Amino acid sequence: MRARRTLIALVLVTAVVPAVAGPAQAQVTSTVRLRVESARTGEPVTSYKFVVTKDDTGDPTQARAAGCMPGNGSDPATSYPSTCDWPSTHTFTGGSGGADNLITQGTQAELSETEGLQLPDGKYLISVVADGFKIDGGWVSVPAPDPGLVKVGLQPDPLPLAQVKAVVFEDNATNGQFDPGIERGLEGWVGHIADVLGEVSTDWYGNPLCTEYDAAHHPIEGTGGECKSNAQGELVIPNLGSNRYSLSVVPPDGQTWIQTTSLEGGHDWDIWAEEGHKGFDPELIVNGAPIPESQFGYVKPTQLDAAHSGNATIAGRVVSVKSYLPPAGGDTFEGPVSRPWISVTDLLDNDTLVYAAQGNADGTFTVPGLKPGDYQVAYWDYDQNLLLQLTNVQVADGQTANVGDLALSHWFSEVHGSVFFDTNKNGRRDAGESGLQGQPVVLKSRDNAVVDAGSKSATTNAQGNWTLKQVYPYGYWTILEVYNDRFYTTGVTYQTDNQPAATTVLGSGVDVATLNQDGLNTRIDIGVQPYARGTNGGIVGTVVYNETRNELDPRLAATEVYEPGIPDLTVNLYQPVTGPDGEYVIGADGSYQLGRQLGTYTSETFERPTDCQARDAGGTPVNLLFAAPATGGHACVESPLMGNQVQTGFAAVNGNYGFTTVWQYDAAGNLIRDAGGDPVEAPMPKGDYLVKVEVPDDAWGRSKYNLTREEDVNVFDGDDYEPQIPPPPCAGKLHTVDVAGLGTDGPDATQNPTFADAGGSPYEGEQRPLCDVKLVTVSDMRSTAPGFHFFTDVPQPGRLFGAVVEDLALGTDPKEFYYGEKAGIPNAPIGIYDFTGRLVHTINADPNGFFEVLLPSTRTFNCPLPAGPCPNVFRLVGNDPGVPGHPNPNYNPAYRTMASQWQIWPGVTLLADVALLPTAPVVEFPGTQTTHPPRCLLPDATPELFAVSTPYVNGSGSFTINGQGFGATAGQVLLDGTQISVTSWGERTIAASVPAGAPPGPHRLRIVRSDGREARNTLTFHVRGGTYTPSVIEVGPGRAHTKIQQGLEAAAAATQALLVVYPNTPSQFAPLGDYFEDVVVHSPVKLQGVGPGGVRPDGSSVAGSIINGLGFTSTNAVQWSTLVEGIKASPGWSGNQQISEGQVVYVVARDGQFTSGYKASIDGFTIQGGDELGLEGTWQTPFYPVQGGGIYVNGYARNLQITNNVIRSNGGAYGGAVRLGTPGIGSNHNDGVRIGYNRILHNGGSNLAGGVALFNGADGYEIDHNEICGNFSAEYGGGISHYGLSGATGPANSIHHNLIWANASYDEGGGIMLAGEAPPAVPVPPVSPGSGPVNVYANTIQSNLAEDDGGGLRLLQAGNWPVNVYDDVIANNVSAHEGGGIALHDATGVRVYNTTVTKNISTSTAATSDGNPVPAGLSTGANSVQLQGTLPPGAPAFSEPLLFNDIVHDNRSGTWDGAVAKLTGLGLPGDTTPVNVWDLGAADLSGKLSPTNTLLTKDHAAYVNAEPSNVVGQDPKVRQPYDTIVNPLVWRGAPQFVQSVIVSLDQPAQVAGDYHLQPRVNGSPALDAGTTGKAGVVAPAFDIDDQPRPVGLYDLGADEDATDAVAPLMTNLAAVPATVPVGITVVVGALVSDAVTGNTKIVAAEWFTGADPGRGRGTAMKAVDGSYNTATELITGTVATKGWPKGARTLYARAKDANGNWTAVKTTTITIR
């Protein structure tokens, strides 16, 4: 679950003050003015109320050196952390603070555009309400830019209602999550929702939940009362107000189901519903449609059936653990989990659940009678206080697989203890001391409201014991309150789990601060004694911020659990004045006359505890690098790594006050003072007292708070009840109850129209005393606790405190607050949006990833809910890029932009967290614990094209190329293989010219340096003329169109269009000329950029064609929706009709619209900023799943060419960079799509894919010559994910000549994933249709990481389709489970030949691993029952690949010991255990592999059949082997979660290992050791570098030694144009080189058609430069087509070197139309 910083942190201003040249500075002012307007129309709102609150949130921008470094002094007041104002470090009071923070309240008369308020320097929030509008606010820092105007937009009523949605499903895979399309829904389950106080029974209109309404909105009789799931398991509860709801579901009567899913522990699911909330998961879709956000999975108790029965057994024990510092080795055994639930799913039978039952009371379990096979065991506790976990188990016939202790971690903290009669008053519970039964124990926040999540309260049992089982790990101090008016506290004894000895604190406080972390426990025993006769506990109460006023008599005002205390108010104690008649004297105003003052108290403000010591699991002190000293009175930092802590002393809590003594007076009535001038006090005697709260005036003479009176009721149902002990009577002055609009109104009638409409007060017109003074009776042997209730006309803001964390990675730096936890993301910007998608405010996280913000709360108090109010709900967008023109400078493209909703209550502090997914994996610098995304650098001196002056010419013309790395010496510029003239050549600029007569059409522009290095991605250059005359439409400054979408609409009207996009006007925030658009391509246009743009190392830059999706929801969503809905309506598109948003480029097509005759293309751009945002759409538009990503090709976009782009920093639900189609809807008909010559960098995907996603029906796709680096998937395929059936007919799919490097997946397939789509959820699931045929060749697949199987290449349910893997280097990849290089499952048609699989690692650290070694180079295993049933009799029972001519060498398999968090067997630094090489095999012993002509590290006799042709135990002698280092990181909160991080220098992939064979003279055993083929599969004719392999002299692996290939090489043979009318002359050309073979001159070349006339007898071709005089030549020839018949004809060409060696014959095709 991101937002950015802009301009001034925590300031929302109305305009940007332009920069002024010279030393002049912008004018500032301390006078603040206010404009209130409709957020929808911009019209001014002229009648309103406001409250100004001091914003005391922390400063995330404070420099670390300026007070935020530990050890900067010994005085607690002047040293860290007191000197650090970061949100993570400073002390905050809670809520909106106290009276000191409330600056003023008023109306438009006091603050407007013309009336200003002069404020002291500081930060402020102005909250505003107006009739007919929702509350909102604006932030300002003083001094502010002159004229100090703050704009506040208010959303007008009526507001849209929300709904919650859930899916109830059978968790057949039993993994605690919903697997869409695989697991079936459950019908007839009843949903229940609750708010903070209890179950909700009615909808917004007051009718039973799920009442249905007719068109006139009348309730339909017979509906409502129960909300049930439908046949698909979907449950909908509509017509709700904004709130945080807790949803739970109940099965139909008589059915037994066990819940497996949990949001954050427990059975319920929290839902934050803002106005208009639709209840969908923002990213997941099923069959193209969104699914509900709340997901309830269940299993039925299940016993083995006959099909899964046998003679094998799985046994073990489930235990719980506690986790401490340090993360490595910090886990401690807690004890067995009583009666755990155990489920077993058959991994070879489509993950079918075969067993589910409870274990024993001692945590042990036994599952006997299983058939042999591979299983996944899930284990969890029924109450779901512990995290469900999984492990994979292989069990053989007749054997028992004992998995040992299976550890579960805690979701929550547990706080428990006792309240006991402390007979000896020592504060410790001694033997024989009995407990106090029935005593409430309450957990509160520091603002004095009850905590809003987890366990909130408990009541002691007969032994006085109490337990808060599910204490939410807030990460900040909470307050444990134990108050009883008949008992006083003698002392408190506490001990955390890892505290060596208990600590006792003597004293009589009732509040103790506790810091609680997940998985850790604390015991707190509270000793009490009854008040002795003649003593009492005095007066102890709270000044309450009274937001919900539903009692008609304010004397009976109750404090709701969500109402905070008010700090900083003066509370005075007086003696009543007794008259001669013995009665208390009443003043002229009707109040009780105040006598002697007997005391004064300032209502409390929370103070952070001091002197906290972090400890490891054994109790040894750990001095954290970010913590303050544990002695000397330094404040305690609030970090998870501090563990559980308890305050040594008693807590001050906001709003509390107390009097247990009274001032003493002498006989003359003078106050007696001590030597220091303080009043002398004595214990308070029983009797009557007057307690008065003084409400201060603000600087303008207006009262800061309003006292709750009879007129101020804002909730109108319910009754007043007289409590058992009546509260003290109100004793303030009399006032006449006067609600405006009822009876005769006086001049000061209270405006409360809603109350008046409801009938008003029963006391209307009566004289009633105010309750700012109360007559309090102190009785013997008890205390009394009167509360005072105040409010403001505009509710005070609430506070959110939380962190931005990386959801799938751990903090690696010991200096971080989140070391060993989910990593905090420093300085991340957070955008705060309302329900319409309007940006309200922007804040930033601090260097620890924490943030803090005050937000407008709510004034919707009369909701049909148990609690009454509907809190405000805001959307927090983490890593928010900002809006066009005002981007957030701290936006981090290495992370996704994701959102979450959070509620705001007046004056209350609530916890929020924003969890982000990365768009890129991380690597670690050697010798440090600092991680960073791979930078994906190009090799030095690689030429880079940034932009051309024009990407087309009309027949001929000149153009300029701008970039870098071209070199000082002129090289070559080519169109395809044809060299064109260069008029000037420089390191950064080239001027070139297309000559007249150049073949018309699109050509690949190539730039080759003089040393032969070639630019990787350039662009397509178009020569218009002849038969290639597309209409040119131009976009850019001064062009016909200024927006890309305008050009696309014009292109849609043309028959053939070339849409050229020039750079936009550079600006301060878009220096490379970005277009901030999300564009829709709905015609077969060639969308052509001029290049990606770029920045050189010296800071100079070149503008490019950049399409930037940042800011979509805030600026473009409504117009985009209108456009797309219009296209959908007419002319429409074929295929998936579900509209998705958030992607930068959206391609939709009609069947037959995109053809091969004029191939649509997207070429020459940078495409960035697409993201799913974690939103469920925008309120103003229809609901669209926010899918995000760079390019999303919906369907039927046949032959689309996506080439020569830089696609970077996009995040998508299903693939981040390029997505072809949608899973689960059948064929998407995206046939013949090519993705070539792109740089695909740092993109992230949430589901099924990371960089490139290919779904069903991408038949014949080609992915070639791309650099795919630094992409990340939260599921499958970090680099490329082919998921579903493609290529069942027609040409095979191909992935070739790509550099796939440094990608990662959180699940399977770090580099490439080839998978069939999972079969549907039916009782007898069919076999997956498989993947279709794929050729994977000539790729470098290196340094990728999978947190499960298949670090480099993973094949899963690919079926029996042929998958050819050849000429690839698969090296240095890492898997956390099987197959660091390659992993196979249900993939029986795989052929791996002439491939180098080396230096890959398997760590066995995955959650599903048992920690034991597994095959690291190539791993396979048994086939599923479903797939095996489709194979012929006698077929192998496992996925046995065809293997020959390979190098499979030095692939290392680790052993993971979770108990001590140690990884061995990989040769890592400091590991003295032998390196464990396991190149290949089936770990489950389901069969032996049969490689031939393969170089292996050792024979692997148990897993590999012996074969004489293999080369065993010899070094292959590659040029530069590279050993990968991994660093396993353990999450403190869940030690089963182990993240592997590759430790690598920040360098290009080519530097991290070179796996070409050494020169022949060095004698590699791989030389000439290959065979021509095997089982009908022929060895490739060329190697990874396209060098020919001489027949009969095949080398092993991907590389063919150059000295083998004595013949020269011909490449890039092409005919231009390739399709012509008869009689047109065609130009053919090619590149010929002998530089890496014989290194002699090229002397001749020829072409021919038809039968081969013999070498030297074809039609001669010429050298382009005029003579054959070098070892590398560009050659050309002309072909006359006069008399040729219509149709295709093959043209053959070859060339000869000076030694008489001819190249192999190459072919191309010329078609006569």
Number of helices: 4
Mean pLDDT: 90
The largest β sheet comes out as: 13 strands, parallel
Radius of gyration: 37 Å
**Mass-distribution shape:** globular
Percent helix, as a range, is under 10%
Low-confidence stretches: 1-24
Please give the number of β-strands. Answer: 133
Cα distance spanning the termini: 56 Å
Oligomer: single chain
Percent of residues in β-strands: 35-45%
In the sheet with the most strands, the strands line up as: 73-78-81-84-88-92-96-100-104-108-112-117-118
Structural class: mainly beta
InterPro entries: Carb-bd-like_fold, Ig-like_fold, Ig_E-set, IPT_dom, PbH1, Pectin_lyas_fold, Pectin_lyase_fold/virulence
Catalytic activity: Endohydrolysis of (1->4)-alpha-D-glucosidic linkages in polysaccharides containing three or more (1->4)-alpha-linked D-glucose units
Subcellular location: Cell projection
Pfam family, one: TIG
Structure, described:
It is found in: Cell projection. Its EC number is 3.2.1.1. This is alpha-amylase. Keywords: Calcium, Cell projection, Signal. It is a single chain. Helix 2 (about 1045-1050) links the parallel strand 71 (about 1030-1035) and strand 72. The protein is mainly β and about 1700 residues long. Among the domains are: about 30-155, Immunoglobulin-like (Sandwich), CATH 2.60.40; about 160-300, Immunoglobulin-like (Sandwich), CATH 2.60.40; about 420-535 and about 610-620, Immunoglobulins (Immunoglobulin-like); about 540-605 and about 655-780, no CATH class; about 800-930, Sandwich (Immunoglobulin-like), CATH 2.60.40.10; about 945-1025, Immunoglobulin-like (Sandwich); about 1605-1710, Immunoglobulin-like (Sandwich). It contains 4 helices and 133 strands. It is about 0% helix and about 35% strand. The longest helix has 18 residues, at about 1110-1130. The radius of gyration is 37 Å and the shape is globular.
